[in-house]
Design a protein that fits this description.
about 30% helix; globular; L-amino peptidase D-ALA esterase/amidase; 5-stranded mixed beta sheet; 11 helices; Ubiquitin-like (UB roll)
Length: about 400
């Protein structure tokens, strides 16, 4: 079960003017499940994206990178079940065929379509089934299709992930709605997931490009479940321009500041939802590293802790074997770290326990205090490196028996 993830209702999600979504059962991998999503964007919409750094990136990722700079995007096609990664030239041909058929149905150029796939790697995409399912997805297009789309992009997720909010820009109401999927194979660069966030603001393309990168860095690139970077990670930010505000073009202006804060907020909530629904997760863990020379070294420490199987299994068992945290800090790659100055706290709710200082166990620390904190479903690990003023936050979860079961049975 997801860790404190609110149960999503259709009414929770707000339509974004200029966006329509439709889903269909295409039988791409399994019968009788919604596995195909079509998103139609109003003419004049702008899109920006951030993608996986895995060198074995999937065919749809390669095609998205080609299509995004070429003009205005008007459609997205998302399939689950098969990742279309590790599929060579045929995989690229299948991704292109997806764009051609979607473009034909919607009366737009193939280059105005972005394809996305998620699922099993190294298996051919059944493009004939995908293409056959597109008319049904087109027939289902509607402004209030976000809830169904959030379900249709799931793989091993146990719950849909979606967020909406509204802000005021230039006297106009701007709506933001986003959906994401992901539960395993999660590590930054991008985090292994699909994320789609749309708003109806009018935004200059250079600002939208920078906003997508900045938002991903503090959200989807700040989560980890198992340390695996996927072949298909994609995060797309869309601005349809339907709100009627003056185009946001000044990166220092109040309007961009308002939009930036909202996009980052929605992105963080979508990223955290992925961690809360991590495969087999029973605990949501926030890792705060402060006092670093720069953000990069703080992130190194946070990821070393968050990706350690020994740390994660100890948290699953509520076992305060907290020397594992110190070991992870020690191998994070800071060669001149003064461990005698470092301090580590464990916290939950309104309680924070000092665990380590002066190179060892804190004099005030008692194991029963650590055990009490670790029984909570939401826990914070705070580390002060005592080297500078920089900091970073990473979110992760524990490792349970179910993580192994889910991934052992993934293809069945």
């Amino acid at each position: 079960m997801p860790v404190n993830l609110p149960v999503l209702q259709p009414a929770d999600l707000l339509p974004v003017p200029g966006v329509r979504l439709g889903v269909a059962e295409a039988g791409i991998r399994k019968a009788n499940r919604r596995d195909l999503t079509l998103i139609e964007l109003a003419a004049g919409s702008r899109a920006a994206g951030v993608f996986t750094l895995n060198r074995f990136c999937a065919a749809p990722v390669q095609l998205c990178k080609q299509h995004l700079p070429g003009g205005r995007i008007q459609a997205l096609v998302i399939n689950t079940g098969v990742a279309n990664a590790g599929t060579g030239e045929q995989g690229l041909a299948n991704a292109h065929a997806t764009c051609v058929e979607a473009g034909r149905l919607l009366g737009i150029a193939p280059e105005q379509v972005l394809p996305f796939s998620t699922g099993v790697i190294l298996e051919p995409l059944p493009v004939d089934r995908l293409v056959a399912g597109l008319p049904a997805a087109q027939g289902d297009l509607r402004a209030d299709g976000w809830f169904d789309a959030a379900h249709a992009i799931m793989t091993t997720d146990t719950a849909p992930k979606a967020v909406s909010r509204q802000i005021q820009i230039g006297g106009r109401t701007v709506t933001l709605t986003g959906i994401s999927k992901g539960a395993g194979m999660i590590k930054p660069n991008m985090a292994t997931m699909l994320g789609f966030l749309a708003c109806d603001a009018s935004v200059a393309q250079p600002l939208l490009d920078s906003l997508a990168k900045e938002a991903s860095e503090v959200s989807f690139n700040s989560i980890t479940i198992d340390g695996d970077t996927s072949t298909n990670d994609s995060f797309i930010v869309i601005a349809t321009g339907q709100a009627g505000n003056d185009e946001i073009a000044d990166p220092l202006g109040a309007d961009f500041h308002t939009l930036r804060e909202a996009v980052i907020d929605v992105s963080i909530r979508l990223a955290q939802a992925i961690v809360r629904d991590g495969e087999g997760a029973t605990k949501f863990i926030t890792i705060v590293v402060e006092g670093g020379v720069d953000r990069d070294e703080c992130r190194k420490v946070a990821y070393a802790i968050g990706q350690s199987p020994l740390v994660k299994t100890a948290f699953f068992a509520s076992d305060p074997n907290l020397g594992r945290i110190l070991a992870a800090i020690g191998y994070a790659g800071i060669t001149d770290l003064d461990v005698d100055r470092l301090r580590v706290w464990l916290g939950a709710a309104n309680e924070e326990v000092l665990v380590a200082e002066r190179g060892g166990r804190a004099a005030t620390y008692r194991e029963e205090d650590g055990a009490r904190v670790m029984k909570e479903s939401e826990i914070t690990i705070r580390v002060d490196l005592a080297r500078g003023q920089a900091g970073a936050i990473v979110w992760t979860c524990d490792f349970s028996y179910d993580y192994v079961k889910i991934n052992a049975d993934y293809r069945s």
